[in-house]
Amino acid sequence: MATQHHQNDELDHSNLSIRPLDPATDVDDLMVWVSDDQVTQFCRWDTYTSRDQAIEYINKFVLTHPYYRVICLNNRAIGAISVTCNTGNDKCRGELGYVLASEYWGRGVATWAVKAVMFTIFEERPELERVEALVDVENKGSQRVLEKGGFIKEGVLRKYCIQKGKTRDMVMFSFLKLV
Ligand SMILES: CC(C)(COP(=O)(O)OP(=O)(O)OC[C@H]1O[C@@H](n2cnc3c(N)ncnc32)[C@H](O)[C@@H]1OP(=O)(O)O)[C@@H](O)C(=O)NCCC(=O)NCCS
After folding, report:
1. 16 pairs with which residues across the strands?
2. pLDDT for the residue 74
3. Ligand 1, CB within 6 Å, residue ranges
4. I need a surface site. Which of 3, 17, 68, 95 has the fewest CB within 10 A?
5. For a pocket test of ligand 1, which of 111, 114, 136 has the largest count of ligand atoms closer than 8 A to its C-beta?
6. Tens digits of per-residue pLDDT, 85-110?
7. Domain N-acetyltransferase, which positions (predicted)?
């Protein structure tokens, strides 16, 4: 009998990969998560309501971003992960962000993606000495992902940013380059 995927079933990680977004093939897959209120709840950006908005986001943000990758299952994009680097005297530090279509939550995909990026990022970006991630205090799933990915919780930054009109406390996590 064929087995079905259930929440908390781990996916076969050998079918997962990370690659740059291809605007020719990935727009509709990206639409799935950017248009989902459940996904954007803890994100600083608002839910996208049209394909045109998503295309504008891809052209302005994704394609110009130095490290934005889609997380793929059998080469279809199901989420994204990025490391935003800084310049000047802040170039030692980059910020990790990730998002996953809700259909795939709870199967170890984000943890896999974080580990995959952290395995190579310090070689790919030699100027980085620290990757940090800021997570809403209520976003327990994302905090768990970071802990499982080897990040250390540094503390809570109170009233740190405004998300969906509310000022939020954020947890600061970091992962340092081994010297
Ligand atoms: C956060 C997110 C990326 C997690 O992705 P995921 O693939 O489901 O994560 P994983 O399956 O790798 O791991 C989830 C872990 O968090 C735990 N978890 C999930 N929801 C939880 C909750 N509400 N409370 C406590 N733990 C929770 C899971 O049990 C699992 O830990 P375990 O393996 O020890 O059981 C996904 O939910 C998402 O895209 N959310 C919306 C966007 C977002 O919040 N991005 C991060 C912004 S900082």
Report:
1. 73
2. 96
3. 39, 42-43, 98-100, 105-111, 135, 139-142, 144-145
4. 3
5. 111
6. 999 999 999 999 999 999 999 999 99
7. 16-169
